[in-house]
Amino acid sequence: MPRDSQDNMPADMALVQLLQDWAVRKGATPAQIDLAWLLARKPWIVPIPSTSRLSHLLENIGAEEVRFSRDELEELNAAGARITISGARPMPPVLAQTGVEAPTR
Predict the structure, then answer these.
(1) Is the N or C terminus of the chain more exposed, i.e. has fewer CB atoms within 10 Å?
(2) pLDDT tens per residue, range 40-66
(3) Max Cα separation, the chain?
(4) Which tens digit of pLDDT belongs to each residue from 4-18?
(5) Is residue 18 a contact partner of residue 80, using CB atoms and an 8 Å limit?
(6) CA angle 21, 54, 60 (to 5 degrees)
(7) What angle do CA 20, 62, 17 make, to 5 degrees?
(8) Beta-ladder partners of 88
(9) What is the 8-class DSSP label of residue 12?
(10) Calpha distance 47→21 (Å, rounded)
(11) Strand partners, 2
(12) Angle formed at CA 98 by CA 35 and CA 52, multiple of 5 degrees
């Protein structure tokens, strides 16, 4: 069952709530918390979020201002690890292409 099905929504809302709680705590948006967490994980991780609105682009750029202490990262990681995400992550067409390289020209 796809992750974004209605049946999976109630269980997956725990992750949304976690991001909302941290957003309030850090004076940021949930999207900024998500991106800041990715940026804090490893220096070579470069998230590339898509957007179709200038306001979302500016919000995404604002994630660079969000900082986590080591203790905060451990707390956030532990809280996230306690949440069970329901449903398959990739949609079937994407899953079928996982690990498949593009043909060379």
Answers:
(1) C
(2) 998 888 888 889 999 999 999 999 999
(3) 50
(4) 677 778 778 999 999
(5) yes
(6) 35
(7) 10
(8) 2
(9) H
(10) 22
(11) 88
(12) 40
